[in-house]
Design brief:
single chain; 262 residues; alpha/beta; TIM Barrel; 14 strands; 26% helix
């Protein structure tokens, strides 16, 4: 069972609070570290390299590999995201052997540029809301026919799922399934609430303006209907699954998110 430490959207804060060695040792048995962002191109461009540099020495000494998670880029920042990904790979070819993409366009571009390509959590179009009964429970995850065709076409190494399933359907497959645990992705915001606090109108809620990575200073916790708690980390909105930190039966790996170290 592969254990992945997910530093997306929180790594830039954690690097100023503790050595990477301390965090990785505390999580225990880590095989891979994720850097980058699932939801924000600004965060991806501004923080991926500093977080990678923070982890690199210890990961190299322990034989821990790394992966870069790329958000869905806007047209304005598409070229910048591609160039930045190539820069990271060029500077750390011995560590960065995997890329995690979250949209078909970036998949088409990135496939073949890294040893391993993973379809990120945004590829899974399922109900992810604790107010719906379909979200909770111990149902089995199954791979759709469309997903299987995409996996075969691009020779995908693995796919990610949310930790709301009790098991993974037992079918023949030649790819890995990695399960996020702890916090489940529920939704995301187009504009950044934290960056908007520092802007004057009419630029306050623009979606394509530069930021000062204000999301690394704050996070929010809210209560919604039914008493459920949701967490706003960067542009992402999450809820606690209540299913512990174990991967579903049949999964090949677990993705751990140390948001409690905020």
């Amino acid at each position: 069972m592969e254990r992945i430490l997910n530093l997306c959207d929180i790594g830039f804060r954690l690097k100023d609070r503790m050595p990477a060695r301390e965090l990785i040792c505390e999580m225990g048995g880590i095989d891979r570290v994720y850097i980058g962002s699932y939801f924000c191109e600004q965060y991806f461009l501004k923080t991926s390299l500093p977080v990678l540099e923070w982890c690199a020495a210890y990961c190299r000494s322990q034989g821990i590999r790394m992966a870069c998670v790329v958000p869905i880029p806007s047209q304005r920042y598409l070229d910048s995201c591609k160039k930045h990904l190539e820069l990271l790979k060029e500077q750390y070819p011995d560590l960065l052997d995997m890329v995690c993409v979250n949209d078909p366009g970036m998949l088409q571009w990135a496939a073949g540029r890294f040893e391993k390509t993973v379809l990120g959590r945004l590829f899974q179009k399922r109900i992810r809301d604790p107010r719906y009964a379909e979200t909770s429970g111990n149902g089995a995850f199954s791979v759709s026919r469309e997903m299987r065709e995409r996996i075969g076409q691009y020779r995908i190494w693995g796919i990610e799922i949310e930790g709301i399933f009790g098991s993974v359907g037992k079918t023949d497959r030649d790819f890995c399934i990695y399960s996020h645990v702890g916090l489940c992705y529920m939704s995301c915001m187009r504009e950044c609430l934290y960056a908007s606090l520092y802007r004057e109108l009419p630029a306050r809620f623009r979606t394509d303006t530069e930021c000062g990575v204000e999301c690394s200073r704050y996070r929010m916790k809210n209560k919604i209907q039914g008493g459920h708690e949701i967490f706003r980390i960067g542009k992402g909105i999450y809820f606690q699954t209540g299913m512990g930190t174990s991967a579903p039966d049949g999964a090949d790996g677990v993705i751990l998110y140390p948001q409690e170290r905020w």
